[in-house]
Design a protein that fits this description.
Two copies of one chain form a homodimer. By secondary structure, chain A is α/β, with parallel strands linked by helices. Chain A has ten helices and ten strands. In chain A, the strands form two sheets. Chain A has an eight-stranded parallel β-sheet. Chain A has a two-stranded antiparallel sheet with strand order 1-2. In chain A, β1 and β2 form a beta hairpin. In chain A, α2 packs across α3. Chains A and B meet through α7, α8, α9 and α10 of A and α7, α8, α9 and α10 of B.
Chain lengths: ~290, ~290
Amino acid sequence: MQTVLRSPSGKQVIISPAHPVVVIGERINPSGGRRKELAAQMAAGDMTLVREEARRQLAAGAGVIDVNVQSAQVRDEAAALVQAVEAVAQTVDAPICIDSNNGPALAAALRVCPGRPLVNSVSGEEASLARVLPLVAEHRAAVIAMAMDDSGIPNDPQRRLAIAEKIVRRAESLGIPPEDILVDSLTLSVGADAQAAAVTLETIRRIREELGLNLTLGASNVSFGLPLRPAINAGFLFMAIAAGVNCPIVDPMKMRETILVANLLRGTDPHAGRFLAYYRELQRAQPAGQ
Amino acid sequence: MQTVLRSPSGKQVIISPAHPVVVIGERINPSGGRRKELAAQMAAGDMTLVREEARRQLAAGAGVIDVNVQSAQVRDEAAALVQAVEAVAQTVDAPICIDSNNGPALAAALRVCPGRPLVNSVSGEEASLARVLPLVAEHRAAVIAMAMDDSGIPNDPQRRLAIAEKIVRRAESLGIPPEDILVDSLTLSVGADAQAAAVTLETIRRIREELGLNLTLGASNVSFGLPLRPAINAGFLFMAIAAGVNCPIVDPMKMRETILVANLLRGTDPHAGRFLAYYRELQRAQPAGQ
């Protein structure tokens, strides 16, 4: 199954098991308190950092750029999201992932977004289905489907799979085909529940095998509350990709080597071409003897 | 399915999908030219380094200690293997993996080895089946089955699976049950063939799913001829464990963190107990500010 996104100039980005893993760069996101400067600029209508993050992520291997402007400082999300989407589209030629749970903001961004974007996200919650899917259908976009519903995030793979199926059916009833849906199997912390990652990995395997859908994943929650988070996050990303994830949402700067190695190992880097190019880049940055 | 090994004192080591990954420590092996001192000591009947490597690997988390004495310097393999097996058994209380393709040496080592060892290895080659399986049956040992036969290493998962099935059937005809067989799906370099790791991972998945067997793997060949080998090897180990490997043969010193993270993520480290103990050990070794 192939999910086809398009960049502002019309260039295709194909997500499928046979293609290299496509990274959605997550860095244009002011939430979490770590990105105060980004939030302040967005609130002031200054797109300098947004453009810079778009460029840096593309250089680090991102194939799609997520754009999220939600923060307490941003009063008019629709206006800020439109501005940020336009800024990214003018700066890099990569498909955009419009990241909002605000219906009017999503609608406004979809109207101005060139190419074929991804919408982040719909869940199995009735309000979310009603808010997001008609917009996705109207704009013939692709969409991320989160495996949770009005009862929350199920703690077993079978129920997460059932939610994914429900979203697929609802989408089909609006004319959105299954290939335009990327499922996020959802990640909880293994610090809080020892089975959390195992449940996610089993969900990924079953969705891949039984539904054949393409799969995204935000991986960093897995290490919440634990030390050595980068090692845990990278390990989880390898395991998730082995299980079927082919379009993860990550920080491309932090996960660049992990993604290159994963593509090398899943057979989607012929002649190790991109891996060796990365190695030569490392060598140029750090000449022998230093 | 549970593979049960026993240490010299009779302590069980259980290999199963529900138990933590069991590491077979590979460092007692003089081959490859990198271990000249080990080879020289073995040839001279000096077991100092053998004992030291056994202790160090156990401290780094190994659950089973592989013992291989094959090198050009060692003239009498049977005598050296017996001596090394006895030295390891006296030094650490862990099951031993007797690693030899020499029938008389294997027979001699099995006679003296306390506990319940693992034999490394049998293949689907007729000579290997005839040489190794009767010894495994006689000593009620467990055995590693390599997915290759007289035609070499097949380049597709279906044929590797068929060889594993053939070895299982032959073993059963001698009274060796499937739970006493760990399959090595075999690893070739992704530098030579872009699909090499993908074929191994698919073989692992299918053997796990269709035969339900426990799985070992020597992972380091995957990066042969490429730069940044530790990163590739660790990534491959994560992917192989995600696919079903639960008893890899590795250098426990180099792969300690990878194995701890993998157990954390596959749900076999309750309360992150071993992972956090490792982290505290790291902190003691490197106090804050250094």
